[in-house]
Amino acid sequence: MPDRNDEDEPVRIPITGELDLHTFQPREVASLLDDYLAECARAGLREARIVHGKGTGALRETVQAWLRRSPRVASFRLGDERTGGWGATLVTLRPGAPAPKSG
Asked: What is the dihedral of CA 53, 65, 23, 28, to 10 degrees?
């Protein structure tokens, strides 16, 4: 049996409309957001909560810069006191957003 590297295995994430980025590397964020929001759209979810934490704000800025460019995203805003405050971003997806990329 070949030796398998866990880093080569895809990470399975349940599609619940909430994505916690604490366990991911910053370099993974763009493709992760694209894939996760595509799957949310496929599952019929119109809203998602992206948990990036408060920290220095660098990850929040990275997430929000990506969201500004995404054709899937209708709007986004910081969470409120019930949804994570400035440690989370709430995303509204466009109806009929572009289909997930294949591959």
From this structure: -170
